[in-house]
Design goal:
Number of strands: 10
Low-confidence stretches: none
Structural class: alpha+beta
Mean pLDDT: 86
Strand order of the largest sheet: 5-6-7-8
Shape: globular
Length: about 280
């Protein structure tokens, strides 16, 4: 094939990033690991932007996976992306496409303002704060090793939560009989319980004990279904602590004179930073 004379105008890497996971916790063949640990990030194309406007593709996560793989070619399977790396990847793609600054809304009482966030600052914060302690020592006989959820598991959990919320909205329908409401509530509760336990199971990499070790998902599921609450609570609390540690904290910013003119009396504001793909790339 002849060389396309227009290739000079096609995308080139805009930035390079390091993944907080350092390439760990990715499934076999899902990430083409580089020698120096840095990965090129390309800007989105018009096709990528259009994909992120399809509601169904956003809901099931396919649009996000396609964009991740297209903008970071070293990622071969976006579904296998550890949640540990997801925010860094999304920020990098937005930064490469639209630049360093991003407007984020601030709601204080009846006031609705916007603040310009520097994504480079958030990227630096992520690189410095993220860490992963995999070992949950239950006792001197039993240790559970946990791993970050993949984007596939995160998407599934989000869909389950959405479906549960839909059921709860239906239950509030006054035209529905009490028997129907009880049945729907029971189904919703069972789904929610199953999803919660499934999240814990999917977060366990392996379990070591004096009686043997296993990384078999079926063995791990049976273990979670049949352990005492004390053991379950230790695992859950460890995962909660890791999730809080690796969540982007609200930005603390000084109130500007323009904000004071609009009635804000505080000196410092905390601005929550969220990365919902449906609005983050808008």
């Amino acid at each position: 094939m002849s060389t396309n004379p227009l290739s000079f105008y096609m995308r080139q890497p805009k930035i390079y990033i390091r993944l907080p996971s350092n390439g760990q916790y990715w499934g076999p063949g899902s990430l083409d690991i580089t020698e120096n640990g840095e990965y090129p990030v390309y800007s989105m194309t018009a096709k990528d932007e259009l994909a992120l406007k399809v509601p169904d593709a956003l809901m099931n996560g396919q649009a996000v996976v396609d964009v991740i793989q297209h903008c970071i070619p070293n990622i071969k399977n976006g579904w296998a992306c550890p949640n540990l790396d997801l925010d860094t990847i999304l920020i990098a793609i937005r930064l490469a496409t639209y630049g360093e600054m991003m407007s984020t809304p601030i709601n204080i009482g009846d006031l609705e303002l916007e603040y310009q966030v520097d994504l480079r600052v958030i990227m630096d914060t992520l690189q410095n704060q993220i860490g992963w302690d995999p070992a949950v020592v239950i006792n001197n006989e039993l240790t559970v090793f946990v791993k970050p959820l993949t984007y596939k598991h995160v998407s599934y959990a989000a869909i389950q939560a959405f479906e549960t919320q839909k059921i709860m909205n239906v239950v509030n329908d006054e035209k529905m009989s009490e028997e129907q409401k009880i049945q729907l509530f029971k189904e919703s509760f069972n789904k929610m319980t199953s999803a919660t336990l499934g999240t814990i199971v999917n977060s366990i990499d392996k379990i070591e004990s004096v009686h043997g070790s296993t990384s078999d998902p079926e063995h791990i599921k049976e273990f979670i279904d049949n352990i005492d609450k004390e053991i379950y609570s230790k695992i859950e609390q460890h995962l909660t602590a890791l999730r809080e540690q690796n969540t982007i904290k609200p930005m603390r910013v000084a109130v500007t004179p323009e904000m004071v003119e609009q009635g804000i009396t505080q000196e410092i504001l905390e601005i929550p930073i969220t990365f919902d793909p449906s609005t983050f790339f808008a």
